[in-house]
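Example record

One chain of 331 residues, shown exactly as stored in the release files.
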Amino acid sequence: MDINYWVLGIVIVLALSFDFINGFHDTANAIATSISTRALSPRAAIILAAVMNFIGALLFSGVAETIGGSVANPMELDNGIPIVIATLIAAILWNLITWWFGIPSSSSHALIGALAGAVFIGAGPSMVNWRGFVGIVQALIFSPLIGFGVGYVIMMILKRIFARKNPHTVNKGFRTLQIFTAALQSFTHGTNDAQKAMGIITFALVSARVQDNLEVPFWVKLSAATAIALGSSVGGWKIIKTMGTKLFKIEPINGFAADVTGASVIFSATLLHLPVSTTHVITSAILGVGSAKRFSSVKWSTAGQIVITWFITIPITATLAGLIFKLMFGW
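Predicted structure tokens for this chain:
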């Protein structure tokens, strides 16, 4: 077997490892509220997340094509495989660091930032598609703002509708509904997040001249879907704790509102072929819902720490990927 195929195999293993880590890193996004309100047991919630992530990942590919071609054109890169290796190592390292400290950072930011940094150092600034990169960053920035606003509005509507109802009866009903919204949110997570690994594998395949277009092969879809489902089955307990308990005390009606908000924003982005951060969207939805419930009930100090991580992820992973490229390939 040609050595290029061995190197390509390493890239695929790294990409699927990133996808696996993304699964347990971001499992909290879909199931933290349902666990914190006891709508689902932790085991049931994680199994549900794994199954729905797998299904969602198999059914869509538009985001993968955006990832594969918007930051740089893989056909124009002579050293595309080393660039992808540096990208994936940087993104994996950042995901593991933030997971260790229980910080719900964005795997999407990590991958996009790392890819831009690796291309910048490995191929030069002119090889970065700045318009495409900025377009992705804009989607990553605006989607959490939309999530916050939609979550606030939905929660205010629910407050008015159920203001005179018995709180115990209301929460009992919404606790049941959360089973379905957790499934929906896990499904939408798969439709968007799993495609990022698909996109980077397709980028590598085109760079290696194994294929000449950004269409995602079925085996790539199946591999990425399996990796994110397996990662989801492991769970990310530290981040679940942050999302489910450290932002504000979530009741079933709040969890329902946050789940519906997150799922609708993420799926809308998927239909538009836009990669968004499920972490950012769902965290912002929780914050919006909490603000509608009672502004003072939100632990804004914890929220502030999360927001800081959002802003620093892209520059840190871009720098890290550039350094890794220099250290490993030093061209």
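Notes: DSSP finds twelve helices and no strands in the chain.
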